[in-house]
Amino acid sequence: MPRFSLEDLVDGSQYIVHGRVIHTWTGWDAKHLYLWTHHEIAVVDALRGAPGVRVTVSEPGGSLDGVHQSFSGALPFSPGEEVVVFLYRTPIGFLRAAGGVQGKFTIDAAGYAHAQMAGAEVVDNPRTRHGTALASLDALDVREFKRLVRGASARRPAPATSRGGPE
Q1: Is residue 165 part of a domain?
Q2: How many Cα neighbours within 13 Å face the side chain of 32?
């Protein structure tokens, strides 16, 4: 996948939320072709947009009814996990992490943000604008991290339709 900067993630995100995963479940899409695993997040702080007090992040794949589907780039979430996630709306209406694995940061017990890029293969892409490297955000205090995200978001208009990545 192409390497994203903070600005790229902001540009592709309708919502950016800081919250805690409270519930996870798997279900079929409307056409009963693909499984999606849904993660309900209690919003602590909306950094972009007004998603409400809870938001559901959906990632393709999962196990249900004796069927298992997995998709490259789908992100895991765990109940109790504290995250900051950059979200775009898919063509079928689900909210998904923009930039794949690059669009999710976990917050540790000490209050530091961590990029979730272990094992991700990202490559530089000439179409990707230069900006704030995501690696430079790793291990920042969550308050500083959110200050940088809010600043980037304030300087860049929210997309009319998000373009967080391929379906």
Answers
A1: no
A2: 1
Question: How many Cα atoms within 13 Å fall on the side-chain side of residue 122?
Answer: 21
Range of the domain at 89: 6-155
DSSP 8-class letter at 53? S
Q: Are the CB atoms for 164 and 86 separated by under 8 Å?
A: yes
Number of domains present in the structure of the chain: 1
Would you write out the chain's pLDDT as a tens digit for each of its 167 residues?
A: 788 899 999 999 999 999 999 999 999 999 999 999 999 999 999 999 999 999 999 999 999 999 999 998 889 999 999 999 999 999 999 999 999 899 999 999 999 999 976 555 667 766 655 789 898 899 999 999 999 999 999 998 887 754 454 33
